[in-house]
């Protein structure tokens, strides 16, 4: 049995699974919103309330580990953009390490993209060479793909929480995107979308009252669908937004910033839609050799 905590910029997730013959079985995934990246200082420093929320989110999910040994052969705690970029991250990391019994592993942007890519591919029928994996998080956005038989990734410090707090940065993102990637490299790719923004959009468009990963997984979302939703959503009152099936209360103020990121990417590279995937970086990590004693 293996487990991994993903301490993200917007939420904390826990996945627990067995690995048999290179595949995950009996997998259970749990979520707690924490908004670690909310209200960050200009230098990326995290606020005390945000760190406390995140500690409490991890603490609330601990019972789901059951009798799983608190050692690096069985448990990993990984963290992404918000903690990675924070000068004062040690305060939270020390407390999480004391709580969980294992060190916190800060994933580099390349590692974050890689595990997202391998996790998405594990649940897809797309060949690695034709896949373009997009992960829109709270604090960053990753694109990963193969080009000339080599895996590549690009990470941008713009996520749905970042753009919620700093909407002026959308223009910076558009400029950075254009300077970093060529449309000719990506135009023949199949876009696979992972992360809360993109699976939430699928749930909304499917009209799901309760989260249904089987319905969401591999659903096709077209650009015309999200443009129509964005227009309608922008005109809604808070009360109307509260009654949208598939949209969690904690995502009501981040769904539009996240979809703006999606649309900038798709309009920049002439991509007409994406396929939603509920297999993502958590799956990639669970299948990885990061666990002590696993084959290197």
TrEMBL record:
InterPro entries, per the entry: ATPase_NBD, GppA/Ppx_hydrolase, Ppx_GppA_N
GO biological-process terms attached to the record: regulation of transcription by RNA polymerase II
Domain of life: Bacteria
Pfam families, A to Z: Ppx-GppA
Domain Ppx/GppA phosphatase N-terminal residue range list: 34-288
Family membership: Belongs to the GppA/Ppx family.
Protein name, as recorded: Exopolyphosphatase / guanosine-5'-triphosphate,3'-diphosphate pyrophosphatase
């Amino acid at each position: 049995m293996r487990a991994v905590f993903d301490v993200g910029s917007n939420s904390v997730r826990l996945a627990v699974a067995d690995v048999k013959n290179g595949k995950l079985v009996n997998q259970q995934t749990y979520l707690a919103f924490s908004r670690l990246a909310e209200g960050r200082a200009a230098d990326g420093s995290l606020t005390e309330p945000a760190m406390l929320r995140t500690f409490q989110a991890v603490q609330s999910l601990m019972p789901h580990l059951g009798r799983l040994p608190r050692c690096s052969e069985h448990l990993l705690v990984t963290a992404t953009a918000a903690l990675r970029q924070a000068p004062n991250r040690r305060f939270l990391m020390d407390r999480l390490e004391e709580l969980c019994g294992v060190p916190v592993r800060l994933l580099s942007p390349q590692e974050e993209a890689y595990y997202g890519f391998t996790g998405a591919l594990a649940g897809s029928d797309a060949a690695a060479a034709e896949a373009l994996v997009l992960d829109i998080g709270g604090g960053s956005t990753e694109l990963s793909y193969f080009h000339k038989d080599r895996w590549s990734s690009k990470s941008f410090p713009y996520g749905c929480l970042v753009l919620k707090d700093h909407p002026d940065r959308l223009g910076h993102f558009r400029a950075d995107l254009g300077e970093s990637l060529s449309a000719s490299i990506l135009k023949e790719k199949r876009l696979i979308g992972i992360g809360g923004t993109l699976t939430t959009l699928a749930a909304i468009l499917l009209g799901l009252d309760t989260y249904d990963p089987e319905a969401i997984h591999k659903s096709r979302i077209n650009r015309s669908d999200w443009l129509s939703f964005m227009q309608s959503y922008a005109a809604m009152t808070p009360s109307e937004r509260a009654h949208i099936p598939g949209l969690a209360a904690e995502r009501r103020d981040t769904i539009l910033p996240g979809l703006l990121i999606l649309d900038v990417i798709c309009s920049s590279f002439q991509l007409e839609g994406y396929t939603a995937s509920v297999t993502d970086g958590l799956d990639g990590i669970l299948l990885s050799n990061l666990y002590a004693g696993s084959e290197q």
